[in-house]
Amino acid sequence: MVLNSKFMQLYGYDVLLGSIAAFYVFMAPYTKVEESFNVQYDHLEFPGVVPRTFIGALFVSILASPFVLVSSLLQLPKIYSLYAVRLVLGCIILSTLRFFRIQIKKNFGSQVEAFFVILTAIQFHLLFYCTRPLPNIFAFGLVNLAYGYWFKRSFYAALNSLIFATIIFRCDILLLVSPLGLQLLLSRSISLPKAILSCGITALFCVGLTILVDSFPWRRLLWPELETHAFHWYFTSALPRSLLAAYPLFVLGVLLDRRVMLYIIPVLLFVFLYSKLPHKELRFIISSLPMFNLSAAVAASRIYNNRKKGFWKYLFVAMLGLFVISLGCTIVTFMASYENYPSGYAIKALHNTGHLKNNSKEVCVHIDTFSAINGISRFCENDEPWRYSKEEGIPLQEFRSRNFTYLLSEHAIINGYKCLFSIKGFSGIRLRPGFPPISLVKNPKVYVHGDAENDEIIRKSWPEC
């Protein structure tokens, strides 16, 4: 009992955040096109717009390989390997967040640390994305380390972590390195000559590492990161949706504690500079969320400590209301995200019902572009006799002559094929009277077709479209 109590004191927050992240993995295991490069080795056949580094995927795959080997020996479906990979990535990211959290406790106290964890837990995006193999997420782990070193006053280690993230994973982390480096110089926390030397050595090491590792799989000398909405969108849409209750609280935290301002300014400049770029996505600025949560946690702690005084008690009630609203928004967002991978559920359903009695005959499945980018990766594939094609540009009238057994398509009607069933996906949110006041709008997104000339397929019982 004492051991359990000590364990929970040391790792209770990690268990809480890890459990939520793991829940998201098992409930929404499938991946989208943005994650395709890091999740499957098909870069020569489908290279994408620009090359990406293999270093993050290689590191995660090494750590996940024992679990994948056991899964293979037990002949479990390939999707279990995807579970393992995503859970390992989540452990890595949450370990770096733990390092940052420990520094928060040392600098601001255990109560601020507790509110930091609460705010992170009731937000959706950070814990949902921390297991997704995106370049931004690999960089996010290094940014968490940089935040921790910054709070620890290991300024050169903080800069070197950001340099590593910039050169290897996301060159746009430079937008965070610049204001942070400038602040450290102006506050005389670092000296310019020593910073240039330290960061220069790290940069040379990183460039050499990425060229050495990535040139082999790409089969040419390569440094991947060298090839590469409205201005206010991050401040008026992305941050409010991801921070939820922490958004107004982070502003209050800056006003209540002067120490927070020193940490927030470089991160705000990072988001501001990113706003200059025309293409905007929440995942691009996910590295800023822990620092905003810190500021919000400082405000929440101050409100809690003064909850019995005058105006503060109204702020405390408002804060509790914001927490409840945040939790509700997180639940709704998760439900929408669960329905956002229709082709992953479609191919799983096809594998469960689409086996043919003649096992010697090849079962060939064609996956169109829409299906390929909305939930399907090679982890979703089965072994023989199943075969898969992602050939693009086939006219609809040509499928009849291509001898595919099944088609996964965004089209409801294809000549020569019978629509066997469809999978619905998220299309929007509808307000309604009663409880719950919000319902998800789901429409058919992926249609599974079977060869109309295959008697065994036609005789089978299917849900139909």
From TrEMBL:
Topology relative to the membrane: Multi-pass membrane protein
Broad EC category: transferase
Pfam assignment, any one: Glyco_transf_22
Catalyzed chemical reaction(s): an alpha-D-Man-(1->2)-alpha-D-Man-(1->2)-alpha-D-Man-(1->3)-[alpha-D-Man-(1->2)-alpha-D-Man-(1->3)-alpha-D-Man-(1->6)]-beta-D-Man-(1->4)-beta-D-GlcNAc-(1->4)-alpha-D-GlcNAc-diphospho-di-trans,poly-cis-dolichol + a di-trans,poly-cis-dolichyl beta-D-mannosyl phosphate = an alpha-D-Man-(1->2)-alpha-D-Man-(1->2)-alpha-D-Man-(1->3)-[alpha-D-Man-(1->2)-alpha-D-Man-(1->3)-[alpha-D-Man-(1->6)]-alpha-D-Man-(1->6)]-beta-D-Man-(1->4)-beta-D-GlcNAc-(1->4)-alpha-D-GlcNAc-diphospho-di-trans,poly-cis-dolichol + a di-trans,poly-cis-dolichyl phosphate + H(+)
Catalytic activity, EC: 2.4.1.-
Metabolic or biological pathway, per its Swiss-Prot or TrEMBL entry: Protein modification; protein glycosylation
Assigned keywords, A-Z: Endoplasmic reticulum, Glycosyltransferase, Membrane, Transferase, Transmembrane, Transmembrane helix
Subcellular location field: Endoplasmic reticulum membrane
Gene Ontology BP, a term: protein N-linked glycosylation
Role summary: Mannosyltransferase that operates in the biosynthetic pathway of dolichol-linked oligosaccharides, the glycan precursors employed in protein asparagine (N)-glycosylation. The assembly of dolichol-linked oligosaccharides begins on the cytosolic side of the endoplasmic reticulum membrane and finishes in its lumen. The sequential addition of sugars to dolichol pyrophosphate produces dolichol-linked oligosaccharides containing fourteen sugars, including two GlcNAcs, nine mannoses and three glucoses.
Family affiliation: Belongs to the glycosyltransferase 22 family.
Record-given protein name: Mannosyltransferase
